[in-house]
Structures
1.
Amino acid sequence: MHPMMKYIREGTLPTFYCPGCGIGTIQNLFFHAIDELGRDPKTIGVVCGIGCSGLTLSPFFKADTLHTTHGRPIAFATGLKVARPEMEVVVVSGDGDLAGIGGNHLIHAARRNIGLKVFCVNNRIYGNTGGQVAPTTPYGVKTVTTPYGNPEYQFNLAELVAAAGSCYVARWTTDQPVALLNSMKKAFRLRGFSFVEIVSQCPTQYGRRVGLENPIQFLRYFREKSVRYQPEKAEEIRKNLKEDEILVGEFIHRERKELTENLKWLIEEQGGKKE
Ligand SMILES: Cc1ncc(C[n+]2csc(CCOP(=O)(O)OP(=O)(O)O)c2C)c(N)n1
Ligand SMILES: [Mg+2]
């Protein structure tokens, strides 16, 4: 038996993903991350949104997985973390779910520094619903809803969440599995809000519209276009970054007191006091 099968809920394989989808790599890395950390799935609560990426861990992961509504996994996860602060609460969902309809929840969770581990699968499109434009779709790309090319500019998710106050922010593509695995593990070790943006290939809905319908070719594209972030050269790297290049690396790693710790202090230390 495959060593990761112990984490898979019976009857859920094979997955329903298109051939060459990046989500398989992400599932594999997630299971390796908890395995290497020796985590008991009973201590992890997973909250999922709607979309192909929203299904990364639900129904597959044999743990408490809460499948919620489109755009709302962070809101549900906030409730879970506040009610059960000892749980490690993980949110896995897509760019459309977390940054489109759910964008406000994302930035406020980062600002509050609630201890969620958010893994955002950014395939730059609404994949599940047939390839509509997302707030992460690059300028000029043709989608179902932008047949003449996207007239808008995309969000830089990692920088958005870093500016909002996240304790840990990293971005990798599915072509950097070891670095991505390490970032997932780091997110598990940290108490505060952690955000890992995973730029992933969607050969079916995104790739075929930009000439990357072959998944191998897609991964090669990620390799060629990835530029490694170095904090000591941040300004120079950002200045020289081309429109189509992908800045990858760890952008933020800082400690701040986490929201449920602040709430505990409020209840225990201040709860009995009255003005
Ligand atoms: C309130 C609501 N609006 C719209 C939808 C339709 N819908 C389902 S998934 C989705 C987009 C998902 O995109 P993303 O989060 O990027 O996931 P992907 O499928 O690309 O992995 C949309 C618009 C919905 N289910 N609920
Ligand atoms: Mg998407």
2.
Amino acid sequence: MAAKALPLPDAELERLASVVGTPFHIYDGPAIEQNACTVNSSFSWNDGFINYFAVKALPNVNIVRLLARHGFGADCSSLPELIIARDAGIPGERIMFTSNDTPDEEFRAAYELGAILNLDDITHIEAVERACGRLPETLSFRFNPGPERTGNVIIGNPVEAKYGVTRSQLFDCYRTAREKGVRHFMLHTMVASNELDGSYIVETARMLFSLVKELHDSVGVRIERIDLGGGVGIPYRPEQEAISFGWLGDEIHRLYDEMIVAEGLAPLAISFEMGRAITGPYGWLISRVRHVTHKYKDYVGLDATMADLMRPALYGAYHHMTVIGKEDLPKDHEYDVTGSLCENNDKFAIDRPLPLMERGDLVAIHDAGAHGHSMGFNYNAKLRHAEYLIADGGKILCIRRAETIEDYLSTQLSTPWEVST
Ligand SMILES: Cc1ncc(COP(=O)(O)O)c(C=O)c1O
């Protein structure tokens, strides 16, 4: 069973928490960079390999900048995410714009930035023409395999998913785009979320490799890049195992030789949009115990809430917890670990074995480096907390200050504007 690492030794974490106040997110920069290097080296056999980091996982320019240093691109789903990618120094051609129900102005902004538009529907060809005046030279389509694949609990069954174009639409998409002057083509899919079975990802590559051939043979379109999306899982539970990037790279390489090189379809660049697998294990939510209460069950009340990390409440997701300074004590008590929202599902854990808990204990919630702070919200007028980054040499940088009451109230108009129509 893999021990869960902490960002800092206990005494340093305690000191930091007492200086900056809790709750906060903290990320391990050097570990994120090391992970990015491992991803790159696992796919170095593929010319043009890119991981477009899914900015939604951790939308902080300082993190995206770290990844850009290692040649990562960005996968963006909105205008603010495009701005983060741009400000992190990522050039347009390394930005994928994989958006949903996209407004015209966001298509236009992505187009002007030179980002790759990854269209979610056949009708979006027309939407892009309307928004941008023309189609770009390079276009990607998101494929939804429907009944050909089964999804998993987080992403859901592809047949029920709102994302992507169906198999029959896909061929029309490429035909139409080519007729309208598009010259470079990419193919995208995303069918898994938090998948720990590496063979599922390999099978997704197989599906796209075979589509590359079908599109070549039946439409005469040469796909230059495939994008396998995100969805590579991380071991949230200590007994789970991560997918080895080295293994994944080798397996996809083998298939590439068999299905792409041997069929005369090379070169084909490979990309992912991994977010969680890049930063997830290297982020922690640090929170302090406010109250320990005993009702029909025993409760540990934290100063963080599901507004700071909503995965447990949203998906029943497991996040491991370490009680700082109590690592070696027996976990001989069982608690529901709650936040302070007026919401009964504001729970980080249910029936969790922990050591005897006391007011003031510091708790590190693990694997909060992706889809953590970014999924936060303001219910109960809770303020968004700060983010810190451990940088090279161990310096700790504040990369997002905590929201203030003034920030929160700043969009509220105590003297209402009259709307003239
Ligand atoms: C289109 C797209 N790409 C990439 C990702 C990143 O997924 P993950 O962080 O699980 O790798 C997501 C997540 O929702 C997504 O919707």
